[in-house]
Every structure is written in structure tokens, then in C-alpha cells.
Amino acid sequence: MTLPIPDEEILARYRTGRSASAIARELGVDGRTILRRIPQAERRTHLQARQLNRPAPGIDAESIQALRAQGLTWAAIAAETGLSVKTVRARA
Q: What is the pTM of this model?
């Protein structure tokens, strides 16, 4: 299938953080067509980078339990720690 832009442009857009499905919508093609144009190693590297760039919060269960003992709500603890309520509950 011939696309209106070269594979290098697809790869450049993907590297800037655009998803394959977003690129596919712009071009009016199926997402799998775009994924075939992106090398497997590049897709793996992109996924790993997203996971690695996520900072690990430095709060443990004891800290959460101490804040909870002070009477703070889950939402207040989440706001104070910068975590989601779901994460705070899971770590407690």
C-alpha cells in the first residue's frame, strides 16, 4: 500500500510521541498499516521509555498508614503525595 507520506515521516511522528492509531487516523489507514512501517525494535524501545520515564514515588505503606492515622482521607493523602487515590489505597 502506498501512503501519502514516506516511512521516515511516519517514524519521525511516532518518535515525537504520536501513537500509531493517531497517525493512522490522519492518513485514513488502518493502525496495523502504520505499525508495519515502524521497526519492531523501535516500538519496543518506545514502550520501554514510557515505562522508564515514570518516576517511582518515594512513599511507602508506613507513611501512608501514618497519614491515615492522622485522620487524612484517601483523597487528601493522594493530593499530598502526588499519587492517585487508587495507588495510595493499593500501597497502604
A: 0.49
